[in-house]
């Protein structure tokens, strides 16, 4: 029989705030597709299981002000941990946005008014990245990281001033750079297509390049994307494995 006293309930509440802030930042839970009550129940279930499996010592709270301060610390820790993981998916999102813009498929967002202001390929790349992340055991890694974070940083012990801001700046730069590298095959194909169209327009001015250019860019871009998709998947898998190890080191040593 499990007995929960006041300190244990407060500890579960603090863990819940940490998990909820983390879940809110992760793309496949933080999007508007996921209702708020689902996030709350999901975070509460994870917090309760982490409290029992992680063998967390209940914290003793002596005042309401101390409780509010500890709650703020937990929210900040969950936010930074989720932001660290979100940069991985933002890199994949940037790759999809760049590919959509340079293949002429960026205008498709006007046909989806109920969707957020994003391109179809960006949504596809995010779903593909989420699928690869889950297939590599990303959910288990995240759960293990949350448990380890409670071992190294019990509820209410996080110091936001101990974080190194240069780490997040470096990750932000690497995220954008990796997204552009993933989209590089389509970028090169789009550049060569534009050069060929410019040469054709120079030597054969009778051809309406504006009428031919957009369909040709879409055909070339999608063809190159389909041919390079297996290679992009291998690159994403390799990058995700290294990033998940970095995530575990970050969340367990913050």
TrEMBL record:
Membrane topology: Multi-pass membrane protein
Annotated keywords: Bacterial flagellum, Cell membrane, Cell projection, Cilium, Flagellum, Membrane, Transmembrane, Transmembrane helix
UniProt keyword annotation of Transmembrane helix present: yes
Cell compartments where the protein resides: Cell membrane; Bacterial flagellum basal body
This protein's GO CC annotations: bacterial-type flagellum basal body; plasma membrane
Cross-referenced InterPro entries: FliR, T3SS_IM_R
Primary localization class, coarse: membrane
GO biological process: bacterial-type flagellum assembly; protein targeting
Keyword S-adenosyl-L-methionine: no
Superkingdom of source: Bacteria
Residue ranges of the TM segments: 6-29, 36-53, 65-85, 92-112, 118-143, 182-204, 216-237
A Pfam family annotated for this UniProt entry: Bac_export_1
Job of this protein: Role in flagellar biosynthesis.
Family: Belongs to the FliR/MopE/SpaR family.
Name under which the protein is recorded: Flagellar biosynthetic protein FliR
Species for this entry: Aquifex aeolicus
């Amino acid at each position: 029989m499990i007995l929960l006293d006041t300190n244990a309930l407060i500890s579960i509440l603090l863990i819940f705030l940490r998990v909820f802030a983390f879940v809110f930042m992760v793309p496949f839970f933080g999007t508007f597709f996921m209702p708020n009550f689902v996030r709350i129940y999901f975070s509460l279930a994870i917090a309760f299981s982490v409290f029992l499996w992680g063998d967390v010592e209940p914290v003793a709270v002596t005042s309401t002000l101390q409780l509010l301060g500890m709650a703020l610390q937990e929210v900040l820790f969950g936010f930074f941990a989720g932001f660290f993981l979100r940069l991985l998916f933002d890199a994949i999102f940037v790759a999809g946005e760049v590919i959509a813009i340079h293949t002429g498929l960026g205008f498709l967002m006007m046909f989806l008014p109920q969707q957020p202001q994003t391109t179809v390929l960006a949504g596809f790349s995010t779903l593909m990245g989420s699928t690869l992340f889950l297939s590599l055991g990303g959910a288990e890694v995240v759960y293990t990281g949350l448990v380890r974070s409670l071992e190294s940083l019990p509820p209410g012990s996080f110091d936001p001033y101990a974080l190194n801001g240069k780490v997040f700046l470096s990750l932000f730069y690497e995220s954008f750079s990796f997204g552009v590298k993933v989209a590089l095959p389509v970028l090169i194909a789009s550049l060569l297509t534009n050069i060929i169209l410019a040469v054709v327009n120079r030597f054969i001015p009778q051809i309406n390049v504006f009428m031919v250019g957009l369909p040709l860019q879409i055909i070339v871009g999608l063809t190159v994307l389909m041919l390079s998709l297996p290679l992009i998947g291998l690159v994403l898998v390799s990058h995700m494995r290294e990033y998940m190890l970095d995530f575990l080191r970050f969340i367990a040593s913050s």
